[in-house]
Give the backbone structure.
Amino acid sequence: MKNHLKYVLGVSGVAIIMASMPQIASAQTTKEEVVVVTGSRLQGKIEGAVSPVAIIDKEKFIEEAVIDIDDLLKKQNEFSGSVGSTSTPGLTDAQGASTLDMRGMGQNRTLVLVNGTRAAPFGFRNSVDIDTIPTTLIKRVETLTGGASAVYGADAVAGVTNFILNDKFEGLEISTSGGISQRSDNLSSNLGITYGKNFLDDKLNLTGFIGYAERGGIERTDRAWAYPEYLDGGLSTTSTTAGGNFSRKDNGSVFNMTPYGGAANSKTFAFNDTGALVPTYATGMSQYESFVNPNQRYNAAAFVNYQASDKIKFWGRATVSRIKNTGNYTFSNPSGSVGQYILIRKDNPFLTPALNAVFANAWNRNLTDTAAGTDAFTVNMTKALADFGIPRTDRNTRITTQFAWGVKAEVNDNLRWDASVVMGHSDEDTLRYGEGSPARLLQAATTRTVNGVAQCVDTSNGCVAANIFGPRAMSEEAAAWIMGDPLYYGRNRDQVVASANLYGSTENFFKLPGGAVNWSLGYEFRDEKGDMYWDPRILAGDYFGGTKRQNAGAKFNLSEIYAEVRAPLLADLPFIKKLDFEGAFRHSEHSQAGGYDNSKLGMNWQIDDNFRIRGSRQTVFRAPNIGELWGVVGSSVVTRTSASTKIDVCSNPATTGADAALCIATGAPAAPYTEVSTSYFAPFGGDPNMKPETGTTYTAGFVFTPKIIPGFSLVADYWNIKLEDAIGGLTAQNMVKLCYVVTKDANSTYCQRIKRGSDGQITEVSLVDINVANFETSGVDFTMRYGFKLPEYIPGDRLDLVLDGGWLENFTKQASPLEAVVNCVGKFGVAGSCSDSGVGSRPMPEWRGTMSATYSMKPVSVRFAWRYMSAVDNATTTQAVKRIAAYNYYDMAFNWKINDNVRASLSVMNMTDKKPPMLWSAAVDANTIPSSYDIIGRRYGFSLVYKY
């Protein structure tokens, strides 16, 4: 906190000392119609921007009755399917948050701003839940792609999304919207009230906002194509409710399943949905899983703008959101966890005559399982615990607050400055229901008969005997005892950003042939910290998930100085109406990762009134974030049971290529030796010694606005992003190979992560994050617009045509030096290479785009849109579905300006009710890929805005 105060007071002191000078709020229009466009801190006309910026205005949010912002943004070519309202809940810990993933580079490489300042993160990858930004308060959204690290610092590797809020308002606006699917679910609603008033002869403006939004949920069983789940060969083993599978611990074949369609000496027995005995049966509860998590959101905001004089302005912003999210997940099986082996005794009160016949030759242990005998045997139980009656459910509450204040001032017409402080906090708590204790399950399942009553052999802690034979056979009391109290876990994030900037122009003392040079200098201090905490049962691994977690926390601070310049080199010459050079530089000092630099070089060449060329080159150095720094947060147990899971290449260097001398030097036995079939620990998490990612980004494009075709424009930009030493993870096998076969260096980070026991066998392989991956992606974005007034003989006022699209040239990733470079373009099913947390392996279509036509007849307009994704091929050639054909969606919106104060909109999304592709074994979840294809189906939206 002392550090916070030091820098906050320092920046505030600069403001007081200099009190006479403002960066215009991002994209705020001045009288000269110059703005600060996202991607630069210098004012200029938006049509002169060096970096490509896409803009979505408020009208689009109203037209589509948007409740979840990501539902609109992920339709844009710049974004890939990410964690959002329709991503797969079981694959993410985002707890209903909606995040952005630009260019498929990951949410940790996409920077989110609010009015030009950093939004408050909720996660440990610096991801922002954009649901904390109320849609009814948004004026527009500006998205810059191709990197902006030199201007904004870390996390802007792929680009920046800047949400411009309506922070200065006079009057009253009430906005309401809602939607419902064709199947009468996913009922959602949104209400926002904005009120603003001017005081002190219009020098002071106070604006306030309150809002509420609710999103209705969808479960698997609400969509016929989603449940049950299928593999290429038929029903998935995780798609039905069942009484459980049981197999001998010692793999003995002693069960007599002949009467039930099995062998006389079967290794397994099971119960189906009706309770009948069968040889084997599927287990799972995926029908309970949420497709869309129900979500409630409360938002409030207050803004103050005070024009103290012609030269100085003070501003402030306070926002708070409270989001409640409920998500259902599949039941976890105890297989592989503490309670996987169950002792079945002859005096078990729940044995039936049929079971006794099946078990006739199975009894091989004594009652206490301490020696051979004829009174008990042990089985490995894999059971979908439908007896509990509810799925595993997370009930999450996240409160996010941000307070920002600052000053903007002018010294004179050519010198101005600003200073600001932004403080954000996210507090998240989760209660998990339906997550039982393996220890209690084992205790409750080990039963006997005492005086004709079922009783736990170990009666401690009030144990209630459980019938494990058959579906829904367990009593409510037994189920409740095994479940115990709900588990809890939580996390907190804090961020403080203090900055001061000076802006100037050489207008009065120096000019280039094209005019005066504009420049800026700035300093920014950022302090980040986060922690997470777990229920004692989770810390001990006593839950069906089974992975031991550790409480964790991390913090870092970052001091940065930066500069930017725009130099108009030439103007008003043949073929050079204007030629500008733009440069930026940023030096960062990271408390954990050390010092590093970012730079930018850009060019804007206006040839004439018809044609403009632009381009830029930027370096990228992304420092690790909280989650990548905080060390081990958990540990899983990996079991070596066969040659296929053997990982120690030192056991036979002659065939594996391992360095035999290095093996012995690091404690391995002299080769050849037999790798013992045992288990080892695999800690996971972050690494406090993580290094920054490095890379470069390029953009090059043109803007064509022919004067002979009024209303027509064509914009196209090529972009390329290359990232080296990207932070990622490795498998245990690859970690060992990189140590002994590739680097052959005992001091390498790979070798340092391997531990051996006194016998030389591997006991631990650390899988915490590591600088190991390489990315490269490139493509072209293009926008064509043509708007014109309709001739008198055609009813109506005008027609506006827009084509927004993109071509993906390249998306390659090398997860480690041992793995091949994989190009994901035009493919799906490339496991681990085309994915981000929470979405699984995404398709990467070569072409994406939206074509729209808007017909206006005042006061009514109708917009028709066609969304397109090109076909993708399955990278896994052994699966049945080889190709997903091109996908087309059609939307329509109707807008009516009832009068000067009221406007209404109606919309139909996915008009043809297009269903997602059925992929069977190639599916990420629920027979398809929910993050990329529409799973809701046809849905209707309505919005009404009253402004006075």
Q: What stands out?
A: The chain has a mean pLDDT of 86. The two ends are 44 Å apart (CA to CA). Residues 29 and 35 are 5 Å apart (CA to CA). Residues 2-18 form the longest helix (17 residues).
